[in-house]
């Protein structure tokens, strides 16, 4: 059975954005390719984790997914409104009481803008660019209403009464003996349609204009954050220009794993270094740091390097780096190494393939062998 996105991230459907983000970081760390080299199952799970986060971190996609599942994200149901198929409350009233309800709201839409004034563009940053900041030139297109047709999309601005809904903005849909009123698909509820398309904008009511802007990316930005650039959005009929919102998409790194302002790394330590508690050099996002291992450090044990993480984009406080050690053992020994290890083994009291503590364990369960 296919797991749903909430099960993949091991969260409930009521989880807020912060919980979703933390769950994603945890699962991404668990199934990261560098920690599971050659593990096809982990690689597949890592892809599913990213797929789940992409949907659940986006409010619109999440709303569609919660209602229709994955099929809805393919375009089958995404356009349905939040009133069970009705465009708004006017649809509900008119479906029960006739076209007199809601018609005025349909007519009002005919003069509304064909697009919102604010504009959103995605900006992909490398792992390093997101952490340390950079300058970026962004090339994008914004919408400017067509002066030729005054934004109507019709030649000379001349509109006609919509032939499908006869100007009401609504059409009747019959289901059995009940007829429901829904927004006219031809005129989108305005009651008017284009007789002949404007030659300049091809009936869209606007033209796309290319623009460029250079922005300073501050230190510490992360995926999902938006940077606003004033007066660089779309241009409305009143001549005012909206804002440009730059949505950050930060790449992952193959070595470092970021969790908000903290950095995680799994670092190999030779078994003698762990036993003796030696100092080791550990890479950080800014260079390297010294990690003083305690004697007898354990595999998987975590250590915190303070203020070796990411600078917070709002407060400028610096996070930590968490180092999880992975103890490594030799895969082959030469004769001299083997002899030294055998002497070391004997020095710890291991004889006849058994340590004193192991002998004591057998003595505790001696009754089992009687």
UniProtKB/TrEMBL annotation:
Gene3D superfamilies referenced in this protein's UniProt entry, alphabetically: DnaJ domain (1.10.287.110), Heat shock protein DnaJ, cysteine-rich domain (2.10.230.10), Urease metallochaperone UreE, N-terminal domain (2.60.260.20)
InterPro entries, per database record: DnaJ, DnaJ_C, DnaJ_domain, DnaJ_domain_CS, HSP40/DnaJ_pept-bd, HSP_DnaJ_Cys-rich_dom, HSP_DnaJ_Cys-rich_dom_sf, J_dom_sf
SMART domains xrefs: DnaJ
Lineage per the UniProt record: Bacteria, Pseudomonadati, Campylobacterota, Epsilonproteobacteria, Campylobacterales
Domain of life according to the entry: Bacteria
Designated name of the protein: Chaperone protein DnaJ
ZnF (CR-type) residues: 133-210
Pfam families the record matches: DnaJ, DnaJ_C, DnaJ_CXXCXGXG
Binding site for Zn(2+) 1: 146, 149, 198, 201
Domain notes: The J domain is necessary and sufficient to stimulate DnaK ATPase activity. Zinc center 1 plays an important role in the autonomous, DnaK-independent chaperone activity of DnaJ. Zinc center 2 is essential for interaction with DnaK and for DnaJ activity.
Main subcellular location: cytoplasm
Organism: Campylobacter aviculae
The keyword rRNA-binding appears for this protein: no
Cofactor: Zn(2+)
Note on how the cofactor is bound: Binds 2 Zn(2+) ions per monomer.
Subcellular locations according to the entry: Cytoplasm
Record domain J: where: 4-69
Residues involved in Zn(2+) 2 binding: 162, 165, 184, 187
One of the GO BP terms on file: protein refolding
GO annotation, cellular component aspect: cytoplasm
CXXCXGXG motif repeat feature ranges: 146-153, 162-169, 184-191, 198-205
Molecular function GO labels: ATP binding; heat shock protein binding; unfolded protein binding; zinc ion binding
Residue ranges annotated for the CR-type domain, each copy included: 133-210
Family per similarity comment: Belongs to the DnaJ family.
Keywords: Chaperone, Cytoplasm, DNA replication, Metal-binding, Repeat, Stress response, Zinc, Zinc-finger
Function: Participates actively in the response to hyperosmotic and heat shock by preventing the aggregation of stress-denatured proteins and by disaggregating proteins, also in an autonomous, DnaK-independent fashion. Unfolded proteins bind initially to DnaJ; upon interaction with the DnaJ-bound protein, DnaK hydrolyzes its bound ATP, resulting in the formation of a stable complex. GrpE releases ADP from DnaK; ATP binding to DnaK triggers the release of the substrate protein, thus completing the reaction cycle.
